[in-house]
TrEMBL record:
One of its GO terms (molecular function) is ATP binding. The keyword Nucleotide-binding applies. SUPFAM superfamilies: P-loop containing nucleoside triphosphate hydrolases (SSF52540). This is ABC transporter domain-containing protein. The keyword Signal does not apply. Keywords: ATP-binding, Nucleotide-binding, Transport. PROSITE patterns: ABC_TRANSPORTER_1, ABC_TRANSPORTER_2. It holds the Pfam family ABC_tran. Gene3D superfamilies: P-loop containing nucleotide triphosphate hydrolases. InterPro entries: AAA+_ATPase (IPR003593), ABC_SmlMolc_Importer (IPR050093), ABC_transporter-like_ATP-bd (IPR003439), ABC_transporter-like_CS (IPR017871), P-loop_NTPase (IPR027417). Residues 5-237 form the ABC transporter domain.
């Protein structure tokens, strides 16, 4: 698999503190990679850097092996990415308009917008909610809208920051199943930040464990879970004990 995004010698400082220090990290085209770690490890900060919402203090980000300092970080570049967060942050309008907004901003023709929105509403099983006001949805419905709003943009990379953590177990399981099918069929490169090893195990191909601002282990998800190293063992084993 080709490398799509890569970080090299990256540090991120805030208030004279090193929040992240990552010599090397890459995301392969078409994979679903998980980033897990304890609270405050730097997961959301890493996601912001990878999605170009923030810039590293030092180091470089490469997109398809081109350093991004050479390409200006333009709106076009940012538009290759879509992000879905834990709080769906839907706008004060209908479900349909929430999903259509990103395409309207991109100035696509109305019939094309309509086709794409209908397609993604259907994919996430929310066509029946199209006219409903986004503020009147259940948590599970809102997260479906949030994911449809991201996928309608047909992103090169989808960034997910704890999208399931506020959902009850059956809702989470159902949505995880559907999302996995969608991501596999579209082969969307996905970076998935989560606290939950069950979610990560189910959804991701590879897994990186971030602790104290450093990536302590990366491998296939089953490898990291089955064979944690000296540093990650306490974190992973705690989860394994809890699951069994
Ligand atoms: N702009 C900033 N200024 C100061 N400290 C920051 C800033 N951004 C992040 N931090 C600190 O960096 C650390 C990592 O934060 P981050 O939110 O990335 O962690 P996280 O792994 O996503 O945590 P959680 O699992 O709790 O969401 C935290 O200690 C946080 O307080």
């Amino acid at each position: 698999m080709n490398t799509l995004l890569r970080l090299e010698n990256m540090t991120y400082m805030a208030q004279q503190k090193t929040i992240l220090s990552i010599p090397s990290f890459s995301i392969k085209q078409g994979e679903i990679i998980g980033i897990m770690g304890p609270n405050g490890a730097g997961k959301s900060t890493l996601l912001k850097l990878l999605s170009l919402l923030d810039s590293p203090s030092e180091g470089q980000i490469f997109l398809k092996e081109k350093p991004l300092s050479e390409q200006k970080i333009t709106i076009d570049l940012r538009r290759k990415f879509a992000i879905a967060l834990q709080q769906s942050l839907l706008l004060n309008t209908s479900v349909y308009q929430n999903v259509a907004l990103g395409l309207k901003i991109r100035k696509l023709a109305k019939p094309i917008i309509n086709d794409k929105v209908e397609y993604w509403l259907d994919k996430f099983n929310i066509s029946h909610l199209a006219k409903k006001h986004a503020f009147h949805l259940s948590g599970g419905e809102a997260q479906r809208v949030n994911l449809a709003r991201a996928m309608v943009l047909e992103p090169e990379v989808l960034f997910l920051d704890e999208p399931f953590s506020a959902l009850d177990f059956p809702t989470k399981v159902q949505l995880l199943k559907e999302l996995k099918e969608i991501l596999n069929s579209t082969r969307t490169t996905t970076v998935f930040v989560s606290h939950d090893l069950l979610e990560v195990k189910y959804l991701t191909d590879r897994l990186s464990i971030l602790m104290n601002g450093k990536i302590q282990q990366t491998g296939t998800t089953s490898e990291v879970i089955e064979k944690p190293n000296e540093t990650t063992a306490s974190f992973i084993n705690q989860w394994k004990e809890f699951i069994h």
